[in-house]
Amino acid sequence: MKKVHNFNAGPCILPDQAIEKSIEALKDFAGTGMAVIEVSHRSKEWGEVMDECRSLWRELLNIPDTHEILFLGGGASLQFLYVAMNFLEKKAAYLETGVWAKKALKEAKGLGDAYALASSADKTYSYIPKGYVIPEDVDYFHITTNNTIYGTEIRYDMDSPVPLIADMSSDIMSRPVDVGKYALIYGGAQKNVGPAGVAFAIVRKDALGKVSRYIPTMLDYRTHIDGGSMFNTPPVFSIFVMNETLKWLKGIGGVEAINRINVRKAEILYNEIDRNPLFVGTAAKEDRSIMNVCFVMAPGYEALQDEFMAYAKERGMVGIKGHRSVGGFRASIYNACPVESVEALVTCMQEFAAQKA
Q: What pLDDT does residue 2 have?
């Protein structure tokens, strides 16, 4: 198979170990003589996978017993509606830091009084708003910790006087998290913890049941807690790959170890962007994401964008084109992206600059 350096924003690179184990399970799952995609989700063998996956989540993030771990369909986009359905009674505040935060807010507005407490839209979401005060008269405060399109990230667990809810789709498992500070952490799996097709939700059980509205059965977190994430047929293959990905993560030392690796990768790439005359970063330096590194051609070199894209592609760089809404370049360096790929991209940038600068 041709070796490439995968910087796709999602679905994204996964550990070789997880892919290999998944291929084996497609041929014969746990000695059943069936593929994992055709086995009954009520079988003993599948129940063991679900139990192991929940256990790995709890161990890797040190999730307290106050919180339940759920595996759901519909991705993070459906979770936007879950959040409002389960937590919005009178009013909710959102931190608007990008496209996905704005979409989450839109869903909440459809059910009640929800508003942006602070926003970075004035500068194309290139920074994380600061200086705001979380009000105490809202049902919850919602944040999006990592913004894939604009390359900004909240890399700390804030204190909140009201239930704190976080979309961690693109940075979950990339750093240690104080889960006890959150009423809910949710996200799509297809960045750091598996393939597309399954969403995770880590919900504090005593935060539920506070709203007076009718919640449709499938949109009620309590339904899935009671059903062990199997009220309906779960996305079995996506969960299987997730479980294998978490086993890989545990094997290399867990979130503490991957955090050190992720910081190193980001430093290597940002250092090159800052020193290379052809490129410039787009996110405020103090808010730069270590998951999604966004940059553009420096002033005076804009005409070289397509040429560099072609140059990088010839050298095995995949997925570095920026989001269609902002252009430029984006290197997504999620957990499974090796340091060697980041170094290869840096070499590519240096060689191109040597020819053009």
A: 61
